[in-house]
Amino acid sequence: MSAVSPDCDVLIAGGGLVGASLAVALAPLGIRIGLVEAVPPGSDDQPSFDDRTIALSRGSQQILDAIGVWNDVAAEAVAINEIHVSEKGRFGTAQLSAREQGVPALGHVVASRELGRALWSRVSAFANVRAHCPARLSGPAVDAGAIRLQLEREAGPVAVSTGLLVVAEGARSGLRQALGIDASETDYGQVAIVGNVAVAGAPSDCVAHERFTADGPLALLPWRHGRYAFVLARRREAAADAMKLADGEFLALLDQAFGRRLGRFESLGRRSCYPLSLVRAGRIVAPRAAVIGNAAHGLHPVAGQGFNLGLRDVATLAEVVADAVRDGQDHGGAALERYAAWRGRDQRNVVAFTDGLIRLFDLPLAATGVARGAGLALFDILPPVKRLLARETMGLGGRMTRLARGLPL
Ligand SMILES: Cc1cc2nc3c(=O)[nH]c(=O)nc-3n(C[C@H](O)[C@H](O)[C@H](O)COP(=O)(O)OP(=O)(O)OC[C@H]3O[C@@H](n4cnc5c(N)ncnc54)[C@H](O)[C@@H]3O)c2cc1C
């Protein structure tokens, strides 16, 4: 096999939240980057940049700042100063606060559509990043010095080759499969209903609430104009029924799940829904290829960790590629093993934590209720445990990348 000279250095399949972030992170290296996205970012059908709000951890904010995107979303972002976790009908509650942790905010809430706009606007600012949209990649074949693919565009297919292919197509990635990487899927049998709502008389104290109920979890994130963004998870049939409810009936459902501790729910925004499952790739590298974001791990949104985890994939992959490029090494070679080794712990922990939360609170109250309540209460009075979890939740645990420390690549 003779070595081929690739058309580009890094080719990213999928320009959603994670793929677009990687293009922006790598761009300052001056290498040739291709970004292939199936659905135009401004389209109503864009599956990554839609109505959902994203709770960004402090670590994610630092990464977005380091890649020059945070300034474009900061003005509209809403800070999270505290997180309250509780269970309906139980005594235990747990609280995390920015003040206790010695940080200005635990995280921020942003609209995924606005983050997408900011990312794609950065993408278009770099002459060394070539965006192909709408387009798709197919038929990967590994050669000596490159991986060859077909770029399917409206103008017709064209052959492309790259030193490194990055799969960021989301949980249902076809390229991941074409590369021979298996993925497992566990259907939670739940659907998330998202939207935003006003709460009459609620304090504007930037507190996020996570409430577990026997019917599924409800997250309330502080949002603009005194509103809250909500994520309500319900079993599939119950969610279908809830989507059909008139606004007033749906507000009563929120009331029933959360109670009146903040005030009365009113003025409901548009609702949308997402089926929930856990998708895990069997491995995150293959010869000349790396898998990132939801293509590597699609999570239940209960703990708001999916994009945060994906952005840490981005920061890590960008760092190992940058080091290889600077050292004159092959960035599609041994660098990928470093990426896989570095990401293992974080990905395993976050998947186990998120999946564990769903399973624990899905068990009948009688079986675990007291232990769960006691666990929440204990967590609240054990500062070291709290600090540890707070650091992980803020994306500041484990070995941190240069971007997560706010440093350039
Ligand atoms: C209700 C809900 C709430 C959430 N809240 C949070 C939160 O608060 N905090 C958090 O961190 N995370 C949250 N998440 C998770 C977060 O939305 C995802 O982790 C994130 O969208 C993953 O981004 P991605 O780019 O990896 O994948 P996706 O968002 O799935 O994007 C994949 C992109 O690839 C494109 N694509 C797909 N196939 C192809 C192809 N063949 N060729 C070219 N392009 C292709 C798609 O068009 C899309 O643009 C939430 C998720 C849900 C469902």
Written description of the protein model:
There is one protein chain. The chain is an alpha+beta fold and 409 residues long. It has a domain at 8-61 and 110-185 and 277-377: FAD/NAD(P)-binding domain. Helices cover 35% and strands 31% of the residues. It has twelve helices and 20 strands. It has helices at residues 17-26, 58-66, 70-74, 98-101, 112-123, 174-178, 236-244, 247-258, 306-326, 334-362, 365-381, 383-393, and strands at residues 8-13, 33-36, 53-57, 78-80, 82-87, 93-97, 107-111, 129-132, 135-142, 147-153, 158-167, 183-200, 207-213, 216-222, 227-235, 264-268, 272-281, 285-286, 289-291, 297-298. Strands 5, 6, 12, 13, 14, 15, 16, 17 and 20 form a nine-stranded mixed beta sheet that branches. Strands 1, 2, 8, 9, 10, 11, 18 and 19 form an eight-stranded mixed beta sheet that branches. Strands 3-7-4 form a three-stranded antiparallel beta sheet. Strand 1, helix 1 (17-26) and strand 2 (33-36) form a beta-alpha-beta unit. It is globular, with a radius of gyration of 22 Å. Bound molecules: flavin-adenine dinucleotide (FAD). Flavin-adenine dinucleotide is lined by residues 13-19, 36-39, 47-48, 52, 54-55, 136, 168-170, 174, 192, 194, 231, 274, 293-294, 301, 304-308, 310. Flavin-adenine dinucleotide (FAD) is lined by residues 13-19, 36-39, 47-48, 52, 54-55, 136, 168-170, 174, 192, 194, 231, 274, 293-294, 301, 304-308, 310.
